[in-house]
Amino acid sequence: xxxxxxxxxxxxxxxxxxxxxxxxxxxxxxxxxxxxxxxxxxxxxxxxxxxxxxxxxxxxxxxxxxxxxxxxxxxxxxxxxxxxxxxxxxxxxxxxxxxxxxxxxxxxxxxxxxxxxxxxxxxxxxxxxxxxxxxxxxxxxxxxxxxxxxxxxxxxxxxxxxxxxxxxxxxxxxxxxxxxxxxxxxxxxxxxxxxxxxxxxxxxxxxxxxxxxxxxxxxxxxxxxxxxxxxxxxxxxxxxxxxxxxxxxxxxxxxxxxxxxxxxxxxxxxxxxxxxxxxxxxxxxxxxxxxxxxxxxxxxxxxxxxxxxxxxxxxxxxxxxxxxxxxxxxxxxxxxxxxxxxxxxxxxxxxxxxxxxxxxxxxxxxxxxxxxxxxxxxxxxxxxxxxxxxxxxxxxxxxxxxxxxxxxxxxxxxxxxxxxxxxxxxxxxxxxxxxxxxxxxxxxxxxxxxxxxxxxxxxxxxxxxxxxxxxxxxxxxxxxxxxxxxxxxxxxxxxxxxxxxxxxxxxxxxxxxxxxxxxxxxxxxxxxxxxxxxxxxxxxxxxxxxxxxxxxxxxxxxxxxxxxxxxxxxxxxxxxxxxxxxxxxxxxxxxxxxxxxxxxxxxxxxxxxxxxxxxxxxxxxxxxxxxxxxxxxxxxxxxxxxxxxxxxxxxxxxxxxxxxxxxxxxxxxxxxxxxxxxxxxxxxxxxxxxxxxxxxxxxxxxxxxxxxxxxxxxxxxxxxxxxxxxxxxxxxxxxxxxxxxxxxxxxxxxxxxxxxxxxxxxxxxxxxxxxxxxxxxxxxxxxxxxxxxxxxxxxxxxxxxxxxxxxxxxxxxxxxxxxxxxxxxxxxxxxxxxxxxxxxxxxxxxxxxxxxxxxxxxxxxxxxxxxxxxxxxxxxxxxxxxxxxxxxxxxxxxxxxxxxxxxxxxxxxxxxxxxxxxxxxxxxxxxxxxxxxxxxxxxxxxxxxxxxxxxxxxxxxxxxxxxxxxxxxxxxxxxxxxxxxxxxxx
Length: 986
Known about the structure:
Layout: E1 7-12, H1 32-42, E2 67-68, H2 70-73, H3 80-89, E3 91-98, H4 100-103, H5 106-117, E4 124-128, H6 152-155, E5 175-178, H7 195-214, H8 218-285, H9 289-302, H10 307-318, E6 322-330, E7 337-340, E8 346-351, E9 354-359, E10 378-381, E11 387-391, E12 395-400, E13 411-412, E14 419-422, E15 428-432, E16 436-441, E17 452-453, E18 460-463, E19 468-471, E20 478-479, E21 485-490, E22 493-500, E23 506-509, E24 514-519, E25 525-530, E26 534-539, E27 545-550, E28 555-560, E29 566-571, E30 574-579, E31 585-589, E32 596-601, E33 607-612, E34 617-621, E35 627-631, E36 634-643, E37 646-655, E38 660-665, E39 671-676, E40 683-685, E41 691-692, E42 707-712, E43 718-723, E44 726-731, E45 736-742, E46 747-752, E47 758-763, E48 767-772, E49 783-784, E50 791-794, E51 800-805, E52 808-813, E53 824-825, E54 830-835, E55 841-846, E56 850-855, H11 867-875, E57 877-879, E58 885-887, H12 892-903, H13 911-920, H14 936-946, H15 949-958, H16 963-978
Parallel strand pairs: 1-2, 1-3, 3-4, 4-5
Antiparallel strand pairs: 6-22, 7-8, 8-9, 10-11, 11-12, 12-13, 14-15, 15-16, 16-17, 18-19, 20-21, 21-22, 23-56, 24-25, 25-26, 26-27, 28-29, 29-30, 30-31, 32-33, 33-34, 34-35, 36-37, 38-39, 39-40, 40-41, 42-43, 43-44, 44-45, 46-47, 47-48, 48-49, 50-51, 51-52, 52-53, 54-55, 55-56, 57-58
Helix pairs in contact: 8-9, 9-10, 9-11, 11-12, 14-15, 15-16
């Protein structure tokens, strides 16, 4: 029987598992059939086993050669069916590479079934590379049927006719090798990047398969193989020691040279990446967004760690609108005309003598083809989308879009009509010929006018409510009424493109100006302070109002404690401490005699410091509300007195009664610094209230100017202040001025970066600036706005800067000073803006009574492999080696669909997947922004309920194409005009 076998083993596998980049877009995979084929054919059986017989009772070979792999063995023009069966008959063993892909392959299933039919079921060996075996039986918790890696013929026995008996389970389990990476992820497939750490698993599984064919124990074979490897290593070590000594120096030099070359290469790629990023910024400024996408894609290809380029790409995609391919319709014959119905649900195509109507959601025909009597030159939908008018040489007809049947007799025209169209109300039809136009009744098809002779060529016709418009030139591109779709043609193909709209901010509404908004420590909540006499707490995911903290006066400040369990608010002459969970007041801090402008917790949350217009700073116990310290600043007056030709210095001290704008603890909680309108920057001991040396703002005897902000560095060694046209860094404890940063107008804020190495300032000269805190020199070009900049803040990780200018907020790269977002616009002046703790979102507080939550970017800087192909699909172009933009070679619609399949895997739910699902979702029904839970319809309903002119205008712009919403908006406008439902005045 031995002579009938040609092959030791037949490899059965899905060809998708033998590709580095599979059809699903996943890259970096092991070419499993190549690896296994080479491993079996090159493995040398240890000498100790060569006198034994194999499992098939044959003499033990030196190598298991040949092994059958169809991609290597079959001729190009072979009869695959017969060739495969012959190879199976000539193979001693069948090795099945098992994965969810091979489990659904009919070829793999048939190969296993036929091998069983040959009576060799006991010689089937499996190698599991991905998925889970036998999960389709439903007895393995945590796995879905989609993860099944055994095909039907492996799971079930054969029946009497050699078919697969799916009613019973195969009792004989095949020998199985398993090379999956064992971790918590549902996808445990080994990738190329994992093989270095996974090599011992691959080697062991290779030995397990070989042991199965040899008929020996796995442990015996492993032991012999290890013994052989040790012997080889001894010989190799002895022989190579001299070579190592000889080549060590040369190798070291070569490695150093290689390392230097790699460093130069990486530096060049980083330089190119930064250059592409800067070019993208210029293109965005010139409104060439599609070109900018191509540059950002190459920037990240050359340097995936370019966080600025990544953030700019994400905010560009998130806050702009883009057309993506959503449908590909194929029909026989070249397409001469296309048109969308006004609701965007139907598309009409014209090819020769035939008109087709398609469903834009499914790409399937909506009705049977409409076939006028002659070649169709032109056609158009009625405004309500129920009828269609077609134009042939001398005949115009009206058709029912639902049935495809004619509604009128032919409109008998003369000299061959060139176009036909409905009036705005759909009651008339206008036709044009070479030099004439005519009006018809759209219901009866009867002429309403005699032909109007124009004396010049007419290529199109349309109408307003009162006028007929004669149009010359090429017809305009076809766009649906709601603006969400356009249609193009290419040969025999119609492409429908769907508009992916920009993100919307989450609106948190008050009835008065919002003075300050702050994220809680975990980013899940926002506290807002408003002039409507309330502070409020909101859920940042849903926009749900969780707490209303009522006061008797305008609330100027609301701040969370470091653990988020408490909120301190400043209102009138008091501050109040609240329980975040219940909203109940825990303590009211009485004692100030004028408005309290700020209240903040100490780093450990045990104390609160308040600053007031009464000229005092006070410290309170958080638990009891007891006042611990009253801090007041005393100025020193130097007077020169002449007496008996001698000069005597007289010192006088008096309280500084100027208002304090803010006060804060040092990072270690041991000191307090305050900013005073009187121009002083006092520092106190936070334990006993004694004054400490501080910035000597009056050291030159100059007139003092108000201090708008004062802040400690993270290490507490320096204080930065904003005053007049400059900001200053003061060295503590001596209070000497270290650096002064000048602007062209008033400096409104100054802040250290979290690491203390930089300072950002905001000025009324329409710029913010980034300074080196070690040298005092500017680090970037000014961050320019079109109006005064009221504040600038670092994110907690120091990567970003947020600036506020009137009603515009922008985010910038803290290293380069380049803008990373679109200008984020509010309807009114923005009073404050802050980052969430993870830097993923920002919250703004506005004078129009709203706080807004904006999504910036997923928290992780490691972007997924689908992001750059998505960018290329949207851009439609790519940069070649000469930096010339060329059309993309990606098949755009299939690429989008592959990305959708990847994102829809239930095991994926990270920030990037959430963003991707949002971006590709229907913009009319998705959430308003990537990480919000409020949908666009919910948002529109809230705007209608608000019932102001502005809110209804915004609702109408978002509700295009939604008849129900548009009717509600129209009704709300009427009630607003009649004064039956007056809006709340903000």
